[in-house]
Write the structure tokens for this entry.
Amino acid sequence: MTSGSALASFEAEVTTCRACPRLVAWRETVAREKRAAFRHEEYWGRPLPGFGDPAARVLILGLAPAAHGGNRTGRIFTGDRSGDFLFAALHRTGFANQPTSVHRDDGLELRDCFITAAVRCAPPANKPLPEERERCAGWLEGELDLIATPRVIVCLGAFAWEAALRVPALADGPLPRPRPRFGHGAEWRRLLGCFHPSQQNTFTGKLTEAMLDGVLGRARERAEEPFA
């Protein structure tokens, strides 16, 4: 089991990263200017580490922090509509002790689940550049060295799926040709695809509660399967 001090040291490194000038400028501009509804809050305005159970068998990999969600609260998927949808599902499926996540110290605990992101800073228009994803890959690899390498990776969206394919510890060997394609419910080795719980998907019904619960239930089934 990784010590708490090792994780804390790693998190301190992540949160001081300034490797991507475009992302640094955007996250800090958002933190200064703020959204009117949060004008009295102090924004986090820095990169985000992952969080959850260090011994988790299920890893949830998102795209990046939301400008007024994680970039404000200091915890991935916390304080935005995507997180509201995700944490409610994690609670329904037994991975979280409560259905809401509003700030870093709200009592949320994850069970057998660790949540992180392919890119650690809020990007303009929620669209990181490929080179920003590549620079951030080292943080994901470092995180995997400190937690128990998960048996299932739930990739929230095509961007996260592609990021996972590029990490040797998650891809489990050379990629076949053609490359495994993302889709909701797609499975390849230890990867499991899921539409991202963005408002664009949840408000239109592209991703429903039942669909997300189904993916998380399948993740639990796969995590509990005996090793081949």
User: Anything to note?
Assistant: The radius of gyration is 17 Å.
